[in-house]
Design the sequence.
């Protein structure tokens, strides 16, 4: 069972800048890459989401930065209601969330309500020789799931196994996540290719995202995303 059922409950006990770190920036594509369980909560997800976003797409991460016990900061995707992240999702054309699961096989579990986007990402990952599958454990189809809170009520959820994430970094500890591998860059390029083929036209692009300033909620330098 989750320790916290909402951000409101979490923020009463945990301290921004000490226990967790929120960081975001805006791109101009209308697409948001989110790591709602970043840093030490699901190690590697912040780095992957940020790399995919690049300078083109918007980016958001809620990162656990405790010395230990970061999994206590995990709020389920359908209950994730941190205000800044929620606003970014709602202002976007679509959302892609990056998550991590414990499976040891090198696998990406595909989910979300945006079937067209999920299919495009799946195609590019398979073409780059990554394994993908759908799983009843990670369907990502609940309308309250943060990946589905875009303006259109749909998005994509990517659950990367621990086996795959270990293949992307020297190690999954905070300091060693700074050293990425060929698998990391191939994965990032594959998802970017799918998104490039999916970006909304200027006529459909939500104007609100361009008005959201890039900020670091804790007002501290990025501590390396925790864990």
Sequence:
């Amino acid at each position: 069972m989750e320790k916290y059922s909402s951000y409101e409950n979490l923020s009463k006990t945990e301290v921004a800048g000490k226990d967790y770190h929120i960081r975001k920036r805006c791109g101009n594509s209308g697409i948001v890459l989110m790591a709602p369980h970043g840093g030490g909560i699901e190690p590697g997800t912040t780095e992957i989401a940020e790399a995919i976003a690049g300078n083109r797409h918007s980016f958001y991460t809620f990162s656990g930065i405790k010395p230990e016990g970061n999994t206590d900061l995990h709020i389920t995707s359908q209950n994730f209601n941190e205000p800044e992240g929620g606003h970014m999702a709602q202002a976007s054309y679509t959302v892609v969330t990056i998550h991590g699961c414990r499976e040891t096989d090198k696998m990406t579990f595909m989910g979300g309500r945006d079937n067209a986007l999920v299919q495009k990402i799946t195609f590019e990952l398979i073409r780059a020789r990554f394994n993908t599958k759908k799983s009843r454990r990670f369907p990502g189809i609940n309308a309250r799931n943060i990946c589905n809170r875009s303006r259109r009520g749909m998005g994509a959820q990517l659950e990367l196994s621990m086996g795959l994430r270990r293949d992307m970094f020297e190690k999954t500890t905070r300091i060693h996540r700074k050293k990425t591998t060929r698998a990391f860059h191939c994965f990032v390029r594959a998802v970017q290719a799918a998104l490039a083929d999916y970006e909304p036209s200027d006529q459909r692009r939500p104007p609100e995202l361009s008005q959201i300033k890039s900020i670091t909620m804790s007002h501290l330098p990025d501590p390396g995303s925790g864990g």
User: Anything to note?
Assistant: The first strand starts at residue 20 and ends at 25. The longest helix spans residues 182-196.
